[in-house]
Amino acid sequence: MFESFDRSRSRYASLGVVSSLPGELIDSIWLIIDLNLKGVIPLTNMLAFDVFNNNGRVTLRFSQEFSDVEMAVDLAYAYSTSFPERVFAFDDGTRETILLPTEISEHS
User: Fold this and answer.
1) Distances in whole angstroms, Cα of residue 50 to Cα of each of 3, 29, 87
2) Origin, by domain of life (predicted)?
3) In whole angstroms, what is the distance from residue 19 CA to residue 68 CA?
4) Complete domains list, the chain, with CATH
5) Are 41 and 67 in contact (CB under 8 A)?
6) Per residue in 62-93, pLDDT tens?
7) What is the pLDDT of residues 39-69, one digit of tens each?
């Protein structure tokens, strides 16, 4: 058994994520995992992040299966209707990838 989301693993974002979210939002997801989640709550290998419009700015809401813990983080980045409603961070034990919901089966 491996510990999920170890920052020493290689980290990626899928082509779908890179083409639909700005790099600073992708980086924000990794920072939320490292600074706000890791070591605070037990993490599974699949984390969900909902992307919300909060008065023109982005709010990311974390959740995961089998847990009642949720957390929302307000960010200073402008929201766009072209952003996906949800992305997932997946850790396969070797590398970590941020994916769109339609890309999950390709990586799990």
Assistant:
1) 23, 11, 7
2) Bacteria
3) 31
4) 11-106 (3.10.450.150)
5) yes
6) 999 888 888 999 999 999 999 999 999 999 98
7) 888 999 999 999 999 999 999 999 998 888 8
